[in-house]
Amino acid sequence: MHGRVCVKQWLSYGADSNGSGVTILLELARLFQKLYSSSSTRPQYNLMFSLTGGGKYNFLGTKRWIEENLDHAESSLLHDSVAFVLCLDTVAKGDELYVHVSRPPKPDTPLHSFIQQLEEVVSFRFPWVKVGLVHKKINLVESTVAWEHERYSLRRILGFTLSHVEDPKAELRGSILDTMSQVDSRKLKRNGIIIAEALARYMYNLSDKGSPKDVQVFKGHLDFQDSRMSSLMSFLTSVPRAAQLLHKEPSQILLVNSLEHEFKSYLQQVHRHTFRQDKRDPDITFYDQMNQPIVMYRVKPAAFDLFLGGCITAYLGIAYYSIQLTTIFTRLT
After folding, report:
1. CATH number 2.60.40 is the correct assignment for the domain at 15-266
2. What pTM does this model have?
3. Within a 13 Å sphere around the CA of 144, how many CA atoms are in the beta-carbon half?
4. Which H/E stretch holds residue 88?
């Protein structure tokens, strides 16, 4: 016996993981551009925004970008001038916000200061939200990393990830059920506000300047736009974002071009980096055809054949003796 099953590989849209992180990142770029556009509101820090592909493939895009910059002649700038790298992942649900780190932050460090700002924003504006610190050491034996910030930590660059997911192995991060219907737009906006306010408080050093703890930087014309965030999420989840099709499928090409255009609307310098696999030693093998049926055969065990053979033998034996008895009975009569 055999059966046939058709597996759909075009069902992975990644709304919460990680369309939510991309949406908040794009809103942060728009809002901080307004602050940087005026000399009176320009902070002393520079912001760099990064969108990388291959997140589900061991953060391959981030890995290649870091390697490219560290191999550059000015690679030391990546270590010396970066206060920290903030990674956003799965931030569209829940009333928890976990700070995932590879090492516990030491006092008087940028990361420790940012976490304090984050806790202050939450305590005064969203007290029902739980903020937790999750420390997970990087296992150098494993070939994969759990969070994107671990790619930076491996190269001694301070990084951390914000997520409402506590366990990096949670099914939500890789489920085909992670669609737009699972996104809570109100909580997505709330988390965006928390991140933006904490970042602004750190960059403007508002705590040391004696500013009120409940001060709001992003309000009025600097507020998060519900319609814009909803449109971004809808657009990001309109097509499955398969990494191997980003440069081939028209819908995927449109997505990448639109994201680049969005960055150019608010950022001064935008660069697109394209990485190709090393055919001699590839990190992972990609296949172009995604929509293919998979045929599966289910075979009965050997015991079933023995049982069936026994039944057939018994049937033939009964038929044989029945014929013999019928012949004998006919002769006697």
Report:
1. no
2. 0.82
3. 11
4. strand 85-88
